[in-house]
Amino acid sequence: MTISSYKLLLLFTIIAISIFPLSLFAKGVYQTEEAFLNEVFKGEVPSSQNITLRSNLRKPIEKILGHPFAGFRIKYWKDKTQTAWILKEIGKVEYITFGIAIKDGEVSTANVLEFKESRGWEIRYPAFTSQYIGARLIKSDKLTNKIDGISGATLSLWAMNKIVKIALKLDEKIQNEKR
Questions:
Q1: Rounded Cα distance, 109 and 100, in Å
Q2: Could you say which of 58, 88, 102, 111 is the most buried, measured as most Cβ atoms within 10 Å of its Cβ?
Q3: In the predicted structure, residue 120 carries a pLDDT above the cut 90
Q4: Tens digit of pLDDT for each residue in 139-160?
Q5: CA dihedral defined by 100, 101, 107, 110, rounded to 10 degrees?
Q6: What is the pLDDT of residues 41-71, one digit of tens each?
Q7: Alpha-carbon distance 32 to 158, whole Å?
């Protein structure tokens, strides 16, 4: 190749990158459900169980969501020390799938498993998700941890806040049934 061929290739590359937004590459599966569960339970994943959403549980969940919850049952995994939840919520127009693990009433793992939105994908990074570690639920719908936002990811952050609160609420219900 001649030097002018390299310049032409470089110009073509710059144009291609400017035409295709990088956010398109941010969409996708960051962690499979299986990988999340193996991480949480260290390779010994318990059988899944279901919790039925009766009105006494549905109402607080719908209050947190700010809209009706479509399902009747929610699947979860539980061993002697923790529960794991794989839950979805709409960001702006697409679902975001989250993996949340709860141990002793507080968040022990908070991961973004799948992201389909065009903006807000930055919430997947551990620098953001680590803010949820240790969070508890107070006054039924508030987190103990202050979560700092990310510019351009407000709706994704709101979705994750809702899902973390719901996972904590569901874990609380499971733990209270055990007593």
A1: 6
A2: 102
A3: no
A4: 868 999 999 988 888 999 999 9
A5: -40
A6: 999 999 999 999 988 899 999 999 999 998 8
A7: 22
CA distance 91 to 76: 22
Structure tokens at 84: 């794991």
Tokens of 87: 């839950």
**Tokens 């001649």, located at residue:** 2
Region of residue 85 (phi > 0: left; psi between -120 and 50: alpha; otherwise: beta): beta
pTM for the model stands at 0.83
Cα distance between residue 129 and residue 39, in whole Å? 15
Among the residues of 31-153, which ranges form H helices?
33-40, 55-65, 126-129
Q: How far apart, in Å, are the Cα atoms of 165 and each of 11, 28, 46, 151? A: 48, 24, 23, 22
